[in-house]
Amino acid sequence: MITTLMKYFLSYVGGVIIVLFQGFKNFHYIPRSIKLILVQIVSMGISSLPIVILVSTFTGMVTGFQAAFQSQGLVPELYVGMGTAKAVMIELGPMLTGLVVAGRVSSSIAAELGTMRVTEQIDALEIMGIDPGRYLIMPRLLSGIITLPFLTIFAEILMLLGGLFVSVYGLNISLNIYLRGVRYNFIQIELFGGLLKSVVFGLIIGLMGCYHGFNSKGGAEGVGQATTRAVVSSMVLVLIFDYVIARLVFR
Fold this sequence. Notes:
Layout: H1 2-24, H2 34-44, H3 49-71, H4 78-118, H5 121-127, H6 132-170, H7 175-183, H8 188-214, H9 219-249
Helix pairs in contact: 1-6, 1-8, 2-6, 3-4, 3-6, 4-6, 4-7, 4-8, 4-9, 6-7, 6-8, 8-9
């Protein structure tokens, strides 16, 4: 049993590393692949904006309300803005954006590439002399790395605005006090650490979608299973690397 699990784990890790290498080794083709990259950026980023806007706005509102509720009568109102800002920059912004995009994008990539695999379109590309790593993997990995930080920044702004709305119009905290709290005790490493997380999360989302899509088999049922595995593995790895990066950066 243990031996079987170990073999499966090593096979899985090895397959992921191979897909990662196939993507990275083709990064020097970026100037020739601008159109492919832009298509993926639109698919991953702009198409994800509606769900990111919805989740971020209400997350910010809940965070602001909870910060005020938990600190009521204990600390000055100034700390409501500070607590909201720190929670958003360090944790909520990058992690929630990563999870939301993982659910939407990794499934889309796995379904698309999985369909191409089971219908032998990827084999046809290889026969025509087109490297699937350059044509399919590299644009998706790079687009994930580029897109997630911008989505995270946008999400953090919306979360802060959501917290501001609740604080000012729901909790009677003045706008000036909330904004002073956001600026109070601001540390740059908290912002950049959160953006570093988003870069890693973007790579994970693209990588998991590509890996499970490329390894699809068994027709439509296999594509469905690959899509599910891509979403689950993306979300689990986002949570794992969220902790790892936090331990490395925020000491």
